[in-house]
Amino acid sequence: MERRRAAWAAVLVAVAACAALPATTTANKIKVNWLPNTNYSGWEQEHGPFYKGDWLVFYYTAGQADVVEVNESGYNRCDASNAIYNYSKGRSFAFELNETKTYYFICSFGYCPGGMRLAIKSQNLPPPSPPPSAQHHRSAALAGPRAGVALYAAVAVLAALLRAV
Ligand SMILES: *[C@@H]1O[C@H](CO)[C@@H](O)[C@H](O)[C@H]1NC(C)=O
Ligand SMILES: *[C@@H]1O[C@H](CO)[C@@H](O)[C@H](O)[C@H]1NC(C)=O
Ligand SMILES: *[C@@H]1O[C@H](CO)[C@@H](O)[C@H](O)[C@H]1NC(C)=O
Ligand SMILES: *[C@@H]1O[C@H](CO)[C@@H](O)[C@H](O)[C@H]1NC(C)=O
User: Fold this and answer.
1) Does Transmembrane helix count among this protein's keywords (predicted)?
2) What's the CA-to-centroid distance between 31 and ligand 3, angstroms?
């Protein structure tokens, strides 16, 4: 009896925690198919806006592409020699936009002049109650992380129930 009560308490706590979570704690993961012979000039407009705390996850084929973070001049000149960071192992690379600034990424395998470069401006999250139009654009993107929170709560509840048996 005592245990069952504890389990229900855990359920309530999980539900309350879920409801109390502000939208700003959700981080977006934005997939980048990082492909040679691709012009990424319209990519930012299509996939943005980007906010501080969002993640870019580059998917690429090792040996055919790398992800090199450079500064603005490196981006404009497709010059990786002053790389801030470069990544070329595995098949994906996750990068957190943890500052509000413009990030520049290029590929150093010769595809940059053909358009394989990205300038991503990350901005602060909009205030809690943006006008409906802005909210609409953001809501679809938030569905993923919200589902993650719900899953986490469900797992926590399940764990509590198992302990109670
Ligand atoms: C980029 O870095 C290079 C080398 O450190 C530097 O000479 C150049 O001024 C920088 N450009 C910008 C726009 O910060
Ligand atoms: C990437 O980084 C490694 C070591 O940090 C360096 O040897 C290599 O030249 C870099 N490549 C590019 C394209 O910046
Ligand atoms: C952002 O991430 C980079 C690399 O992970 C780290 O070096 C830097 O200190 C971080 N900046 C902030 C403001 O957290
Ligand atoms: C990439 O696309 C943009 C916009 O369509 C265009 O202005 C630019 O010239 C293209 N770049 C290359 C290298 O084809």
Assistant:
1) yes
2) 20
